[in-house]
Predict the 3D structure of the following.
Amino acid sequence: MAYSSAEQHHEPHSFWTRYVWSQDHKVIAVQYTLTAIAVGLVALVLSNLMRLQLGFPGRFAFIDANHYYQYVTLHGMIMVVYLLTALFLGGFGNYLIPLMVGARDMVFPLLNMLSYWVYLLAVLVLMASFFVPGGPTGAGWTLYPPQSILPGTPGSDWGIILMLVSLLIFIVAATMGGLNYVITVLQARTRGMTLMRMPLTVWGIFVATIMALLAFPSLFVSGVMLLFDKTLGTSFFMPAIVSMGQALSYKGGSPILFQHLFWFFGHPEVYIVALPAFGIVSDLISTHSRKKIFGYHMMVWAIVAIGALSFVVWAHHMFVSGMNPYFGFFFATTTLIIAVPTAIKVYNWVLTLWNSSIHLSVPMLFAIGFISTFLIGGLTGLFLGNVSVDIPLSNTYFVVAHFHMVMGVSPILVIFGGIYHWFPKVTGRLMNDTLGKLHFWVTFLGTYAIYFPMHYLGILGMPRRYYAYDNYAFIPASAQQLNAFITVAALIVGVTQLVFLYNLVHSTFRGRPAGSNPWRATTLEWQTPDTPPGHGNWGAEQPEVHRWAYDYSVPGMAQDFVPQNSAVAGGGDDHDQKAAGRKKT
Amino acid sequence: MSVAQSARHDAGGARDGMPSAGKPALWVFMGVVTVLFAQFLHAYIVRMGYADWQRLPTLPTVWLNTALLLLSSAALQWAQVAGRHGRRAGMRAGLFLGGALALAFLAGQLWLWRQLTALDYAIASGPASSFFYLLSGLHGVHLAGGLVAWGMTIRRVGHNGVTADGLLAVELCARYWHFLLALWLVLFGLLFIVPPATILAICSSA
């Protein structure tokens, strides 16, 4: 395990090779994170603009119907793909996988660097669509043909082309990154780090990466074929159609085929975002409640089961597209089954908290907030998983409320929690606690204020996707008041994110020094010889792992945590203890 | 693709006593490409079931190109076997020949495109044409990516006998070539050889 000879490891010295063209996973992680946050801010502003129109219709003249649809589309696409996916896999995955498994870096550092730059290119191409004639696409984030590429939809000239090209580039980036994460977990774990000793964060990111590698090709296929339909006149998804009084040359294609391909990617995508969040939350809860995670093995298998099941539920997004009732029955059943491993995870988090020593630090607040929002969002998922309930609710605000709770707010809370938690390792400084708590409470309560009322709007039948709600007799006037309230809440939550940004920047330079292990955590990334970790992470010798990641409050120990690389006897999970018992007898 | 290429680039650097990551990485990558083409073929077979389906003519060029790719794959296999027996000259010869034949295959595919376009089977002329250009084009892009890796392998096998590093690169190339050959044979079969009725019968009974 000598460190000296490997040629890749001479430390880069110039500013450019160190911070820009860096092949160090930690720098690449920060690049990914900052880019994702920047593009996420764009999406946040778009959502607030959207809310301005919904809360105060017609008051802002520059938000016409076209702009509104462009905001909706780009908000959704950026948040799901360019923020959440990129930040969890490219940001957290890059930073944490090598450190948590005791590796010196990713297995393919050059590929890792390329992955970031290709991701950045995808972001730039997408952003460029704001500046082309006609603006970005307004087809809705699902980009359903035929409308997405036909005149009448905003951005159907250039916006949609840039959107699709950007997605294809993103998929290349995600594949390069994903290959790295998977192989690093499989091949580069340090001595003693068995798979069943990995922290759940690594498990979540690892399984999510495998899912991304299997699901993104489906988006690639639908993207390429739609791009061909748009630019080369093929008819993969385009039926014979009359558009604006003119018969087009398309004929014979199947729009439903696009929906199948899209959702075969789209549903696993939910869990590509959720599984890393599950993993991170497990580690935050265990660390900040000073107690071993309840049912570690069950947690791992639940992650794997959710990953597998999520590939057979996609058509529950298409109940309203029309399908064979037996088909609908099948997909409703699989959708309800996936609630079982998910519920196991929620129980285990709560059981971990039970009788533990809960420290309400900022990361912990976000973790507990996540359990709450995820539970609410998950429960409404059970409603929508049933075909007969889904059909009347599908095109209403109920669905908006559901998916924002379960895959918008929940993963974002985990991202914040994770950033507050690992920031001290990345910078060597702590983030400001008071500002952190302010950020948490406004964000947490604010998102409830935004999304909880939407469930009721949905049950009232208020349709989603609409630009204006004039002349719909069945929508009571009070709905408009509720909409205005939601908009005010959304603006407050939006502005509060500036507190987070300020905290991030200020603490990077002025934060209180953190020491190497401020949370007294067991996992390897907190045991590096330097903080922030130097190039190669471990100095002269890679750590050797002797136990699982959750030895908190082990009876009879001097400290209330035992690092994974500590060789002291005692502790360990049930399997370790059994093995130790066998040795003794 | 750059993925494969870069994977190869780093492959030799087995670090800190770890087993080389190049082989598993290539397996995972081939898995991803398999899923990608499986999705395309799923769409293809669904579309094939529509009443207006008309297959493309099987020009002699298709057979010629298939033979070229077959020979290319065989040449790389030869390079690998020679390398394993420590014969550097044989390894280099096989490597060069394999690459040249792959280039010839790509040129042949472009020629086939021109022939079909001239026969009024342009890309937008019908669903079978659209799928043909899409699938053969994407297969070609993957082979072109392989050729980039091949170019770096040529540099790596150098002049000092057969190194473990160089041999590994040759083996990875050969494996990827066999994979692309198998992929092409599947495409070739589904696009030109197996009657649509048979494909549909198999897929609808499954």
Observations:
- DSSP finds 16 helices and two strands in chain A.
- The longest helix of chain A spans residues 65-101.
- Residues 360-514 of chain A form one domain.
- Chain A touches chain B through 47 residues (CB under 8 Å).
